[in-house]
Amino acid sequence: xxxxxxxxxxxxxxxxxxxxxxxxxxxxxxxxxDRLSRxxxxxxxxxxAKGGADDIQCTIxxxxxxxxxxxxxxxxxxxEAALRGAGKKLRALLDNEFGKLDKRR
Length: 105
What we know:
Order of helices and strands: EHEEEH
Number of domains: 1
Distance between the termini: 24 Å
Strand content: 25-35%
Structural class: alpha+beta
Helix content: 25-40%
């Protein structure tokens, strides 16, 4: 599975952040990572330097093998909380989609 991290100009996308994001995504998805070809994480500071509540937006796009890409978005106060929230949403979405697919078989 490939992993890619994208950030805006207000969030420093260094190697440490990439490792945190990848670790968070793979632990949130658990056994589902075997069924994915790629995960892309996009982090954006919506308000820029102004600050404010829930101004970090995390969008995760997962590309399941043989299916259309699935995307979720979560906003929170800091980067790690936004990553955790988006990871939980993505796991719920993929559990649902894979459950439908497995029932058809």
